[in-house]
């Protein structure tokens, strides 16, 4: 009888264990099924509303950003007129930050509150999606501008975060791209010449801003140059190149020499000088409308497709 009871108890325990194991398996399966179902649920159709914004292949991708309401921003932060080298330096430093993380950018050009970043024709970064490229460039630039503010403005506080908008434009040929960059540099010259004369009339000529604006209405470049030279003895061509030409950023190989502590076999540790070439972002302030710059840097442009 005792033996029978023991056998009966073992059977009952075995049955209970089987039921618990089966219950755990069913619950786990249900959880897995639920998670899988949520990943491919009836709501997934909303992805069909996303648009394909992949940039056309074999085209240079230009991402240009501009400061939003920067006239107000410059006034409230008391930027020096007509050019604030602190602000220009911060813009360039922020652009360097963008290029450091995106090596597919072959050249960048900036002036005033704008910067253009040119991605190589063969770039496959972010699957060439315009929205991804633009938002990454603008967000990286904006955050860098705020992050490095103190390096250029010292104790002057940043009163509120600046804003930058962006756009994407495609250029299929080297000729198109060079014309785009020429357009931006010509714009730099036109704006800087006007601002130089305008603020010289105000700061040195004693005119009000309204009077200076009236004085310059209808004037051509030659007229503005004449005002600077004849009335203030200023030769515009001697003004800083960064103001007249803007800033060009390109990749160049740079030779670096470093000292390493090395231990040779059967010898004591010694300092060894090592020279190596590294790809670095270099800054230029020169003419990019003519041929000289492009002849000196032939590796920037890719071959046009026949």
TrEMBL record:
The note describing how and how many cofactors are bound reads:
Binds 2 magnesium ions per subunit.
Q: What is this protein called?
A: tRNA(His) guanylyltransferase
* Subunit (UniProt): Homotetramer. Interacts with MFN1 and MFN2; functions as a guanyl-nucleotide exchange factor/GEF for MFN2 and also probably MFN1.
Q: What is its EC number?
A: 2.7.7.79
What does it catalyze?
Answer: a 5'-end ribonucleotide-tRNA(His) + GTP + ATP + H2O = a 5'-end phospho-guanosine-ribonucleotide-tRNA(His) + AMP + 2 diphosphate + H(+)
Function, as annotated, reads: Adds a GMP to the 5'-end of tRNA(His) after transcription and RNase P cleavage. This step is essential for proper recognition of the tRNA and for the fidelity of protein synthesis. Also functions as a guanyl-nucleotide exchange factor/GEF for the MFN1 and MFN2 mitofusins thereby regulating mitochondrial fusion. By regulating both mitochondrial dynamics and bioenergetic function, it contributes to cell survival following oxidative stress.
Q: Which cofactor does it need?
A: Mg(2+)
Query: Per the UniProt entry, what species is this protein from, by scientific name?
Result: Takifugu flavidus
PANTHER family listed in its UniProt record: TRNA(HIS) GUANYLYLTRANSFERASE-RELATED
Q: What is the organism lineage in this UniProt record?
A: Eukaryota, Metazoa, Chordata, Craniata, Vertebrata
């Amino acid at each position: 009888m005792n033996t029978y009871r023991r056998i009966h108890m073992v059977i009952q325990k075995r049955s209970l264990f089987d039921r618990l194991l089966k219950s755990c398996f069913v619950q786990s399966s249900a959880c897995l099924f639920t998670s899988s179902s949520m990943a491919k649920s009836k709501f997934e159709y909303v992805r069909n509303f996303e648009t394909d914004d992949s940039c056309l292949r074999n085209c240079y991708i230009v991402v240009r950003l501009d400061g939003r309401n920067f006239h107000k921003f410059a006034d409230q932060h008391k930027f020096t007129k007509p050019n604030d080298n602190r602000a220009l330096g911060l813009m360039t430093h922020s652009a360097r930050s963008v290029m450091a993380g995106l090596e597919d950018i072959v050249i960048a050009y900036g002036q005033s509150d704008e910067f253009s970043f040119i991605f190589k024709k063969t770039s496959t970064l972010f699957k060439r999606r315009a929205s991804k490229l633009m938002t990454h460039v603008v967000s990286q630039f904006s955050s860098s501008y705020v992050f490095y503010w103190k390096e250029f403005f010292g104790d002057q506080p940043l009163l509120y975060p600046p804003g930058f908008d962006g756009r994407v434009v495609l250029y299929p040929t080297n000729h198109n791209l060079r014309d785009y960059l020429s357009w931006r540099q010509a714009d730099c010259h036109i704006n800087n010449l006007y601002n130089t004369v305008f603020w010289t009339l105000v700061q040195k000529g004693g005119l009000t801003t309204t009077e200076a604006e009236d004085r310059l209405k209808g004037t051509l470049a030659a007229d503005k140059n004449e005002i600077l030279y004849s009335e203030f003895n200023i030769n515009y061509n001697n003004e800083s190149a960064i103001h007249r030409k803007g800033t060009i950023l390109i990749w160049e190989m740079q030779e670096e020499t470093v000292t390493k502590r090395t231990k040779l076999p059967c010898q004591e540790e010694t300092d060894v000088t090592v020279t190596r070439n590294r790809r670095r972002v270099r800054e230029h302030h020169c003419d990019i409308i003519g041929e000289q710059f492009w002849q000196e840097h032939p590796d920037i442009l890719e071959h046009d497709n026949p």
